[in-house]
User: Fold these one by one.
Assistant:
Number 1:
Amino acid sequence: MHAEIIGVVATFIATVLLAIPLGKYIAKVLAGERTVLDFMAPLERFFFRVSGIDATREMTWQESLVALLTINLIWFVYAMVILMIQGSLPLNPDHNPSMSPDLAFNTAISFLVNCNLQDYSGETGVSYFTQIGVLMFLQFVSAATGVAALAVVMNAMKERTTDKLGNFYNYFVKTITRILLPLSVIVAVIFLLNGMPMTWEGRDTITTLQGDTVQVSRGPVAAFVPIKHLGTNGGGFFGANSAHPFENPNYLTCIVELVSQSVLPMALVFALGFYLKRRKLAVMIFSVMTIGFLLLTISTVMLEMKGNPEIARMGIDLHSGAMEGKEVRFGAAISAYWSILTTVISTGSVNAMHDSYMPLSGMNQMLGMMVNCFYGGKGVGILNFYIFIIIAVFISGLMVGRTPEFLGKKIEAREMKIAILIVLLHPFLILVGTALSSYFAAHDTAMGYWFSGKASGWLSNGGYHGFSQMLYQYTSSSANNGSGFEGLSDNNPFWNITTGFVMILGRFLPIIGPVAIAGILAQKKYIPESAGTLQTDTATFGLMVFGVIFIIAALAFFPALALGPIAEHFSMH
Amino acid sequence: MKSQNTSLFQSDMVREALGQSFVKLDPRSMFRNPVMFTVELGTAVMLIVTLYTLISGDKTQGSFIYNLVVFFILFLTLLFANFAEAIAEARGKAQADSLRKTREETRAKVVVGNRPGFNLVTTEVMSSQLKKGDVFFCEAGDIIPTDGEIIEGLATIDESAITGESAPVIREAGGDKSSVTGGTKVLSDRIKVQVTTEAGESFLDKMIALVEGASRQKTPNEIALTILLAGFTLVFVIVCVTLQPFAQYARTPITIAAYISLFVCLIPTTIGGLLSAIGIAGMDRALRANVITKSGKAVETAGDIDTLLLDKTGTITIGNRKATSFWPANGVEEKNFVEICVLSSLADDTPEGKSIVELAGREATQKLSIEGATMIKFTAETRCSGVDLPTGRRIRKGAYDAIKRLTENAGNRFPEETADRVKQISSNGGTPLVVSEDEKVVGVIELQDIIKPGISERFERLRRMGVKTVMVTGDNPLTAKFIADKAGVDDFIAEARPEDKMNYIRREQQQGKLVAMMGDGTNDAPALAQADVGVAMNSGTQAAKEAGNMVDLDNDPTKLIEIVEIGKQLLMTRGTLTTFSLANDVAKYFAIVPALFIASIPALQSVNIMHLHSPETAILSAVIFNAIIIPALIPLALRGVQYKPIGSSALLRRNLLIYGLGGIIVPFIGIKLIDLIVTLFY
């Protein structure tokens, strides 16, 4: 028991310690300073020359957004086409079929938006060409998109008045060549040394001890898994994701996967501090995020290690905790840690079945995604947090007797309008989606094209747990997390298409909003600080931000959570 | 009229406000406030549900009585919010009315065919008939019929009706003290006054309209806050609407009354209901400080002021400089020098001039006469004044450089010992006034400033608020620095010409700072207009009053400090009540959410941490708490949250503790108590 907890604590501390120097490095890369990886410059110049981009031309926030949305649209069309014809493309040794339009739509969007919700299973649903050429490609570029958007916002937060916020393409390309690619290579080597497969050959047939023959899927896994975590993508090479022995062979790879998925979201917070030379601000942000994360983690680890009272009633020993749906090679504690880490940042990879966690652990996982900014996804976590800062600044600015300002820029009606729309969006998408599906499930509607059979058929459990499954699915989509509660029959037009739209909206609006706010603020006059100015890098202000997050992001879901995990928990005890 | 009533609720005001509370139920006026408008919609739905249960006898929506009670409480919530706004309006109006009373219908003597001089023909007209541009005549004993500017003559005027100050003031044509206010009384002499505003368009009339809501516009900050509150309202619309299919899935019927109660409790009705009252109360507090604001925005901006431009005279120092010593030049006899000084000042009615005569004493002045002499007035160009005696003696006194130029142009040397003396006086904070006779320097008069007691503490307080104070003075830099250091201002503008003020304001504004200043003269008008908060003195010229965005009836230059605090109070009150309102939601969730589901999911009883008696009493307690918290906070909204200059972080900590933590705890206690009481009747 103790060793398990030490494993969790050591992993967390190692991640933070790695994140600080990495943050300093990222700040240098984004600021265009000299770094050890300057030898990548010729490669970058080659990309820019081929695509005719002048990477030194500074762009406005509007131009940056147009660039971001344009390249994303192109990737979407590319991904959708390949997915629908993958069956007839090379690198498909297992002869997996092409996807149906609705599944291709869902999958293309899912990987494009860094969500990686998978309504297919890797073994049978996609070819190697798709895994590497579409999915892994999107895992790189979607992560870099988030970082590049954050870079635009960080540039806008500097102390000056401007509409020139650096070059989006420059941020984007350098994020890949100098951050994601080198780190992926290092992590891949560790995985290879631990026996993760890396092959272009198709299924292998093995004969078991009992004499049965079994088909075992494999492929270029070690190339795929590093960026799956480093990019907070989370889409598994195999259906079982990081619970699969080929995708996560042992406890060491488990820790490496944990560190690699959380180190960049943490490092980006520090990068913000180094980049803006506002270390205290970064510490405030990091502390609020960490406190939120720890609250969720500690309670989940405790719940999972304690085990399920229903099972105890059957007279089964709960010594190793709630092990249903978990891998014995990992254990309850690190799996609990993983489940919260993967939901607070937007990875969504799993090393155990979230459906089988204790009800309140499931709630904590959902809360992580509902808040979506305790570290949060690649770049976008801080963008989400930025919106909460804007709202907290507005209220607390008034409380100190000044019209609100953040980093020397006045926050007025226009910024407030955008911030509020973005804040509204997340509960809107989750609650409306869940309302729609629960309405059909409650009335057991015949769904026609949308779902074969009646609506309640998509639930593997009825009652509170069934409600949690639907709530989880939309939460995961809107938060661009991509983890599944599973147990839900989600590969059908209804779920593919509704979650597809939720993913698009939940991805791009929360990028557009903060970039727009930061861009508008950057154009405003810079007001120097005085003794009357609200200090945003203090513990008090951190508390205020936490309060805003708690009341807006968490409490808005209280009625829904009461009907799902909370009701299930109390019925169980 | 200084306000005498400290009571927040006077019975006549309350009566008027109660009536207004019903009038304001008109959806067209409610629409301005999105939060309360949704409450009104909810109340209307409850009315229909109540009538339905009465007529149909259908019990699935709860009993008729229960629905009626919920409807009644929601209706009260609306009335309370309206009452808050109405009482704030009533108070502001009462304050303005008491000022307006001073200008009841009086007869005005309108001059027919105005020509210079007081040999004139007048006709009597009622004051309300006066038009802009009319010229009227007033003499001792007359009440001035309306606001105007003296175009001829001089008079002592009793302005106590407006300022509460009993000492009469002198107002005269030309210069910076040419404005007269309707309702004040002429004590001596006679004046011709030109009407400067149309009837019903005086600053006071505008202010009353502002308070009454007819022309009240939301300030930028109020708009931003309304957007935030509307956003929160929308979040809870989503939460409550989607709850319906959730409940269907969970097979938990939820009554319409419960839905609406949950919704009304969660949306920020507390701040929504009090928001406009807070804004009006801010203007009202300014008015109580005898400051007429031309817009609510000006009050709000005052809270943000970074830089305060203050005139030295009257603000930092008491009244004016006084002569303290005579320093004759070498070879000039002291007695002779004093005599020259007195001669130069006998006809000089500036405070400095008078103080010179005073210092010289009776003996020296008695036998001197300036009969037949020509007075040389002070001008900004020559920067000296004096007298040409019939005997041909040309006496001048003025600033060092002005007299130096004068003497050197005439080919005379400026004596070194006098130059040294000038420097010495300046470095001691005094003002040297060099005197010459026939372009030869005869000596220097030392003038000294007396700094107001307690003023440096006030500047310290401003500094802690983050406001930089700048002293504006016509003194030379040395003197200015001495006084600036002694008084504790952060910066000064010495030898200031009107355009220097303007340039300083522009420079500060370019750095993104907000600047406030006070002024009275016509040459202050551009700077008053440029400043973010320009306070014109009521005694000042019409141009100055038009240019500024506030008018101070007391003509008190230290008023700016109060105005800044009023602005800060206004913003703080908004911020703290918003925090309180949102923090209340935590308890309300825990009251209502279990109540919604307990009937069908008994396990959720564990979430009922307040142990409320039953779902019905829980819902009733929450909506009752939600309703009565509004009137309970009206006094706070009207008085404003107290501002303490303890630094922004400490202030935030303090307010977060009181209104944030308090906002979480108070409703838990309140709802539980109400539940205990409601249970008695249930």
Number 2:
Amino acid sequence: MSLFGALSVSASGLAAQRDRATAIAENLANSETTRTPEGGPYRRKDVIFEPESQVSPFSAVFQAEFGPQAAGVGVAEVVEETRPPIMKYDPGHPDANPQGYVALPNINPAEEMVDLMGASRGYQANAAAMSAVKDMVSKSIDLMRL
Amino acid sequence: MLDPIASRLENYMDLLAARQKLVASNVANIDTPGYRTRDIDFQFEYMSHVDGTGLDVIEPDGLTVKNDGNNVSLDRESRLMAENALRFSMASTLLRGEIQTMKRAIDEGKSS
């Protein structure tokens, strides 16, 4: 029954979009962070997706038996933004350099919100796909109840 | 199986399941750079493969490729998703009818 494979594909989509939303939330929360363990201001994080085959020992048998290999999605890597930080003149700030400038993360809230909307829509689409498949599975189960 | 109609229905449902899986995969990869939409030629597969194995995965053309090389269209996938679910529901209702007919015949034989 390859329908269960479709469920795990959608589940991987949900997980990936949630990871993306987490990264965006982290960026927004740290938009004014000037100190990090690595030193310097916080750097914006972005997740990169890649297709990933859903292989579990159980499903592998079924997949070999029937149907095309469907790819799920996974987070390939989390990259840090390389844009230079914004220099803001604030001589009173404890992290200001000798010239009185503070390095702040180069984070654009509008950009983050748009990304967040994308992640949320992606999550919704995967959830809808999952419920459509669930419907099909329950239709098949109903065949046994006569 | 029960009769030729039931086995065709079974084949139809297998194909729908396979297609739904590809749709789920396309939706999951909606933001994956370089990912291309994958699908099956439903009519061709239905006419040519009686057993539902060895499906040819195709990359449909005519879809807009975004800047990151991804060409998944959410509208197309949503439509296919709804269509698959409806077709599946129809097929399962028909198959249910077939099984019910069989069951009725068995039940009538029992009550003598």
Number 3:
Amino acid sequence: MTRSILLRGGRIVDPSNHVDEHLDLLIADGKVVRIGADLESPEGAHIHPCDGLVVVPGLIDVHVHLREPGGEHKETIETGARAAAAGGFTSICAMPNTDPVIDSPATVGFVAAAGRAAGLSRVYPVGAISLGQRGEQLTEIGELVDAGAVAITDDGRPVMDSGLMRMALEYAQTFGIPVADHPEDLGLSRSGVMNEGLISARLGLQGKPNASEDVHIARDLLVAELTGGHIHLQHVSTRLGVDLIRGAKARGVRVTAEATPHHLLLTDEAVDGYRTDAKMNPPLRTEADRAGVEQGFLDGTLDTLATDHAPHHYDEKEQAFDDAPFGIVGLETAVGLLLTHYLHGGKMNLSTILDRMSVQPARAFGLSGGALGLGAPGDVTVLDLEREWTVDPSTFRSRAKNTPFAGAELRGKAVLTVVGGRVIYEEDRG
Amino acid sequence: MSRTVSSLGKDLVGLEDLSAEQIQAILDTAEPFKEISERRIKKVPVLRGKTIVNLFMEPSTRTRISFEFAEKRLSADTVNIAASGSSVVKGETLVDTARNLEAMRIDMVVIRHGSSGAARFLAERIPSNVINAGDGSHEHPTQALLDFLTIRDHFGRIEGLKVCIVGDILHSRVARSNIFGLLKLGAEVAVCGPMTLLPKGIDALGVRVFQRIEDAIEWADVLNVLRLQLERMKGGFVPSLREYNRFFGVTTPRLQKVGRDLLILHPGPMNRGVEIDSDVADGPHSVILKQVTNGVAVRMAVLYLLAGGAPEQAEAAKREGVG
């Protein structure tokens, strides 16, 4: 049994329970047991003074790549979970595009077990939609769920066969999990390596047009509507894509959708100079698209913030642009970026940020957490909203350092991360 | 050895990075170098003692040989590396290849690479001068410079001329270098080709777009006709070579229709009967072989300037060397 923990003197912000006041919070036996003013410390409790800090439900990232098995030179489940803990995330959902693909109960069980063994942030496996992510035959979805999968996706390899997507959205309903999709029509994106537009024309790089994403978002929404299944659209990057989702939500389609920090904050201008740390899929798009994604994030059309944490070894990014892989890391910068640009930038209040980073992700993927009521799991993140820091990839817990935000000066940081009543990360308060 | 800062900067990666004055200076410097290739003994000591590596990661005949002649006629020591038969096929990365060359104390690298941005990538990582001999679909600056010199030889100017680039603009590094450079020099620039081979956003670069070759011919003073890579057919960009020639080919009947002479350029190698008909390529208004001759002079000028030479001393340097 772990020691109980008393978080004393902080401001508790818990959007699920409409709480925003200075209270103490006591966690024992892995659960929240008391919330109140001036709680007495039980014997042996570990007291964390939280004066000037904000105590919030543990943050959840439903879209990370941990690369294990098969890509351990980029990241492992343990190093990824350590990065999550340092970034304030108490739960993360691991994408199945590993080698081998997570498409069987055994491989799902491996990810879950490795996550438990790491003993850091909770690691939830996400299974593949199709065997080998080949887009041909459904995985044993029921068995994957029994083994611990919380969703299915062929992320990284879009489901090109609309009939297969229909089957997945129908079949998965029995097991109550969402079908997540990386919406991209490969026929339209062809050999594109960045957004198609003025910058790609100038740089002589092949482009992926917005339509390559929009066509598949529209397809997924229509198939979800047909089947009544829950579609979760990953990393939406286009203005029209956001509009399509907004319309579908208004019609009652069961859709949840992600915004990433990089699509909220950067445009394809970041690629100029052939910067491989700005190469990701979907690509960074134009300012009109960035603004559209932001509008969707503000109004809740894009209900979930997800980092699409995609670690790569530096040798792989240190190549000509065409040859470098897609993706950037995000777990250790997301909180700082959101607090700096949305809270301090005056665009979003704290409780809405927490809605997008904890409440909605928990709801979308059916995870415990997202609230701090009595009996809730003791998953808590403590934020210092004023802490000023500079992004220095050499200090990342992640094995990978590939971020376009290196050198960014940020305000706000997670300083204490608690999972099941156990401290898994504590910032040196110097 | 300390390196002299040249009037072009350390490298020649692309014309997008140069000013109109710098481009003019290269063309002006090329003038005195033209004469060297006409001598009986085609050698001057301008780059004596300099070591230059020609790193060609993609097949090339014309550009590689042109650079090599330019280097040798300026007395540089040269080494050629081709992708096949080198450590590249053994899986060595571009960074490692570059660092190993650098460790042998070289002065310049001329690089041809299949990926856009590769020349800049190399230039940012080694202290040697880097000259881009074509990177993916990005730039091929010395090709465009020799095009400009050839146009200037004919018209005596570039400013105010109407130049149309015809063909596969999407995949063409020649097109981009021409567009960037010609606009800086005050020319009007257009592109013409099937929409499948025109990059989206190209008009935002400041060029006019023609979808019919007849309209382009009607408008232009100069046609720069690009090679249609045969693999574009496999990629589905054009249905057939026959159809391409029928609707986009530069042919004598089409040229005759406008009743005035257009200057015809082609960077080579030509697909006769596809993008250009033989009677046009071999006709009186074709300057395709003059381009090749000018290529050597332009490349000499670039090598000389990057080595720290001054444009106004090029004439004297032909006798003295850069030092």
Number 4:
Amino acid sequence: MMIGEIIETMSTGFVAESFELNQPPALGSFVVVHAPSAGPSVELYAVVTNGRTVGVDPSRRPIRQSTAAVFDQAIYEHQPQLKHTLRTEFSAALVGWATEGRIRQHLPSRPPPLHFSVHTASEEQVQHFTHSLQYLRLLLQTVAEVSPLQVVAANVREVFERRDQDRDWLCQAAREIAILLKSDHEALLNVLQAIDPGEADPANSALARQSSAIAPDPSRRGSRP
Amino acid sequence: MPLKLAVIGQQMEQMAESAATFVPVQERFVEQAQALLRRIPADALCDKLDSQRLQQPRIPWLVASPLGSMSGAVHAPAPPAEVCVVGGDASSIAPDRHSSLRYYVLNVGVAALTYGSHPDARLGSDSQLCFRDEDLYLFPDKRDVPLEGTLLGTRMEAESLRALQRATQSATLPTVALRDGPLILWTLQNESELVQSSMLHAFLESMSVLQQASIPLGGYISFSDAHDVANSLRVWLCQGRPNACERCDSEERDLCMALAKIHDRELFSFLSDGQRSELFGSSSQILKLYGEHRVAFFYLNVGGEIARIETPLWVATDPALLGLLHAATYDQCRRSSGFPPYPPALLEAHEQAVITSAERRLIEEMVERAMAGLGLSVKRSAKDDSKRRRGV
């Protein structure tokens, strides 16, 4: 589904204006851009790293519109011009590309063209792309407004759901993250807490136990078992 | 810094002190003027204004003739459940006397806001570069009367009204057309009758189309500095001739002189939220050319400000159209997020019409580039050039 148009583009990612006000794609979700190609079609894969809604004119700051009787969604019916004076945009980090059914998890050679459409990735595309987890390394190195740890966690949660709660994939992703964050136990724990699908104490969850085997807590080093 | 802020600072303090003394005195006079407003029978005032008009020399001020009572107040009717308010505004880049190339830019903004079961908004602008003789001169055959200054301002008014009229063409809901600024184009007053009628032609034509479509038109003036009604009170108080104040020894002289500084918006500060005054006719000479579109006005408490609303007589004399204009204008102000409020349809039309300083520079650069593409250059006056360089 077409959800936006690229309004700023660079080798590491792009910013797109969302077609729907206040509805950027979910943080961490996959989006796809069909890049122009003389040969076979090329799909660029990116992960949403930020979403925001601002005034169309940067010199006009949004101001409070609610009253005691008119608030939340009713404001948009009361002030129909807001649909035109506000805009929602989202940033996405490029994490790979696909051509002729082959997935490459590294930056494409060229950024996507300005004003090209951005699509949500289909279930099939998400499953296909996340078969390999190399892209998580690229995602962790993203420089964005939102912490890359939170983006990675959001991405794993999102993919877990889109893969029909595939626990094997989740454990594999947790192991990959543990390898990538083995020198930063605090950060690892943060991500594991954020991706855990619902155990009471995430620090003792299966995911954490599994990952701790790869990246043990340095503060416990030398202590008695 | 050549501007002597220290000197100006002292003068500012003096100005503030002067205002501090003036305000309480003025407030007392406003109360007296409002009492007078309530006392005067409208018919008697109209008679006095008529008799003064016959005398020579004429009344030196712009006066208002009441079309109802002087101090009547009318509550705002409820706006229709489904209503569309179309706002229009315009701006321009004036011809540059210091450039060898003569052109101007017009930008007309329109905002059509629909309320009700299907809320919607259409915002847009219409921009044009005017460089042909028929754009630059009112009488292009003779290359006479260049369109600049006041006349360019009038052209903008006419264009914004035309845009309003076009935007309301396909209206299916009850619709109100609001313009930012007056409908009485009094700035044309000093022009020849030929210039006046030529300039007014398009303006009045658009009003006719709106009239045929039964779409009430309002000219919205925020913080109006008009004195028309206050001037009528001065005529009422005047025992002699209104242009011989220096010889006046009437006991009402102090109030009369104070009225010269009282704005109508202060006079009507007794209106409560949503209430409008009764209608008044203007004595502006330009209205003689308006025919059936002669303009009346009323004051409206929009909730934080007394705004002046000008409207053609065909609206003023039709209770349904007048009620719709009153209700929709007040409803607009209730939807405003600012205080004092301002109609969102006019705010958005302004945002569409406004030309920023960056855009002005860009237009200049684009014109120079277009000329350079054909091997031509735009010459500028030495004065303008030296101001741009500002060398030391």
